[in-house]
Sequence to fold (309 residues):
Amino acid sequence: MRSNSSPAKTRPTPWDALVVAAVVLLGALTALLFYGPKAHADAPLTCVVSVGGQVADAAPLASFSGEHTYSHNGYTLTVFVHDGQVEVLHSDCPGQDCVRSGAISRAGQSLVCLPAQVVIHLEGAVDGPDVIVG
Amino acid sequence: MKFSVKKLALCAILAALALGLSTLESLFPVSLAVPLPGVKLGLANIVTVFALYVLGPVEALAILVTRCLLGGLFSGTATALVFSLLGGLCAMGVMILLQRSRRLSVYGVSIGGAAAHNAGQILAAVITLGNTMVVGYLPFLLAVALATGSLTGFVVSLLLRATAHLHLNNQSDNR
Fold:
């Protein structure tokens, strides 16, 4: 049942190019999927604000600068966007966690105000791996 | 599957060699030259491909699993074990299939194996991190796999030519 009865080919054959082509194709496909025009990698950083679970604002950070106010559950938040950063300037909620969170500027970061049910999330460029093992 | 004494000894030697090679290459991190974390030369794969050709799929698989388990034991990290085992098993499966096709040379088989190894490791990363974003890292690893796979193929082709007169698989041939 041994399959190596015939001598092994030790010089490259034209068929090897098929394997190379398959690997290149797989790489190109995943690259296109993750870094292609459709992927968010090239998309600018987008600020998504959801109030009470519904998206209230979604705009590229660059064209979103200035002060914005959001009211929900009887609380009002003042969000300030400037120089590629987002921060909650003022809130009349009891906890003030959102104000103390400071400014966010990178994709994946978010500011949350639980009492007012306001979530500010930055979306955009693909995050690098958090950790590489092995 | 019966292992003759000669074959068992050969498997043990090859497993030890693979373990030594993977320890050796961890002393020379290629990631310093290529700025990609996790990139390896895959020297231990030379042993796997060589065993696949000279001994057969079952023996090569036994050597691979032994190497991964002992390597995981020595490094003491369960994550490293998962990564090397998943990568290694993917590579093994693809190489066994590719080797069955008589048209491919050692080069095609080892390049396919190297690529499958990286795909397996990405799979392990997706499982451990629970995040599919790491798949975006695959194209870079595949590009490296083309180079390391060719290197492995080159070394194995030299080894096969050099050991052809030894008839390492002589005793175990059932025919």
In short: The first helix of chain B runs from residue 5 to 27. The two ends of chain B are 15 Å apart (CA to CA).
